[in-house]
Amino acid sequence: MTNVLAVANRFIMLARQDGRSFNTQQLMKLCIIAQGMHLTIYHKKMFDEKIEAWKLGTVVPKLYKVLKPFRGNPIKEPVKSWRFLLWDNYLSDAEKAVVQMVYENFGYLDGTTLSMMTNQREIYKQSIKMANKENFEFTHNYLLSFFYDKVISIQHLTDQAKFIKQNYCVV
To answer: Is the pLDDT at 171 greater than 50, yes or no?
Structure first.
């Protein structure tokens, strides 16, 4: 298992290789989608940090704290934290494959579209109601349910998920 900053930095590296960058909103949502995909494929978390439903959307609080200074500006370099230095070493081959799959299938979307995917679903709306509009931590069963029903059912993603599981079965 890795941490959310390593996942975010992997997305930043992939974008940089393509001459692109992400803003805070895009990076946040891509990390959440990667966690959901990993849960769907392996039934295990990719990173241990919690994901919460806030009034304005789904958030990984630890990542939010690190990305907040960027505001809406492009993030072109790996984000740093005192917790680790060599971020790429914190991702297994299976985790890298999931991040790559998410990048290829969702990395081209803008932050608003990614937010609509993660915030406008029934699972998000239910969690906000349950929390009485306070921050609510998503359980992994919630994420797994959302991604299995809404995202992984798309055929080409299902095929990619099967390929990753077959070729990178050890996480």
So the answer is: no
